[in-house]
Write a structure and sequence with these properties.
Order of helices and strands: HEHEHHHEEHEEE
Organism: Tetragenococcus halophilus subsp. halophilus
Bound molecules: S-adenosylmethionine
Structural class: alpha/beta
Mean pLDDT: 92
Number of domains: 1
Number of strands: 7
Protein name: rRNA methyltransferase
GO biological process, one term: tRNA methylation
Largest sheet: 7 strands, mixed
GO molecular function: tRNA (guanine) methyltransferase activity
InterPro entries: AviRa (IPR024268), SAM-dependent_MTases_sf (IPR029063)
Shape: globular
CATH class: Alpha Beta
CATH superfamily: Vaccinia Virus protein VP39
CATH topology: Rossmann fold
């Protein structure tokens, strides 16, 4: 994949999962530069890019979703994540809560207290610096106050009951050794996922990015493919909903 929007490699270490954000066990951390490039491409397909709702229906520990919440704080007003795995969601809630600002401020206070108690510059100083830089991203004057929702859901079963307001879906599907599809759907999980996601979308202003392994084919009658990217062992399908079907 050629980086069109994230052309310059930056230092993304503030998002490392051993600093302010955390990673759920057995959920691989998604590369931040690739995530940002995918999000920028998604935004390029939207008519309106303000006060958007983003949804990740296989959010795991929500590392990916939280990173996007910070990097695209000025575009996002509602951030929704769901997963079938309740254990992963305990991590997701901690990550996503950071985006509302309050728990990030609490973390900063705790780190400041830690730092005062120690004489030397330690790892906690580095973490504190990262936390402060992340907080700045939320304080941008153009960044709307965020509503965060995180809940248990089998996306191969039904559609969650959002009121058709989702603008961006970005999801890293279960593949490889670390995560697998769960649930008891008789149909292929990706078909059910796309059936259900379609119901949540604002069809007049939405786009979805499905990240999957190289062998997967993502196609559905309700969507048209607008972009397809390959990066390492991953491929990314970017689709838009067909309006006439709703
Ligand atoms: C590759 S991981 C996602 C990692 C996530 N992007 C992160 O940043 O932590 C895929 C996730 O899909 C979830 N999953 C598997 N089957 C599912 C289903 N039927 N409905 C919803 N989520 C499912 C797994 O529990 C796993 O957390």
């Amino acid at each position: 994949m050629k980086f069109k929007f994230e052309a310059l490699k930056k230092d993304y270490s503030d998002f490392s999962s051993d600093k302010v954000l955390i990673n759920a066990p057995r959920t691989p951390a998604f590369p931040v530069r690739v995530a940002s490039e995918i999000m920028a491409r998604c935004l390029s397909f939207l008519k309106n890019t303000d006060h958007l709702t983003i949804y990740d229906p296989c959010c795991g520990g929500a590392h990916l979703l939280t990173v996007l919440g910070f990097l695209y704080s000025t575009n996002l007003a509602r951030i929704y994540g769901s997963d079938i795995d309740e254990k992963a969601l305990t991590y997701a809630r901690k990550n996503l809560d950071l985006l509302t600002g309050e728990s990030l401020q609490q973390k900063i206070k705790a780190l400041q207290a830690d730092n005062k108690a120690q004489d030397e510059q330690t790892q906690s100083t580095e973490v504190l610096n990262s936390a402060n830089r992340l907080a700045t991203m939320l304080l941008d004057a153009k960044a709307p106050q965020k509503e965060v929702q995180c809940f248990q859901w089998d996306i191969t079963k039904d559609s969650p009951t959002f009121s058709e307001n989702v603008n961006i879906v970005i999801t890293d599907l279960p593949y490889g050794n670390m995560t697998h599809w769960q649930g008891d759907s008789k149909e292929p999980p990706t078909k059910r996922l796309l059936d259900n996601i379609y119901q949540t979308l604002d069809v007049n202003n939405s786009v979805i990015a499905i990240i999957c392994n190289k062998k997967e084919r993502i196609a559905h009658n309700n969507f048209t493919q607008v972009n397809r990217l390959k990066h390492g062992k991953r491929q990314i399908f970017i689709l838009q909903p067909l309006k006439s079907l709703k």
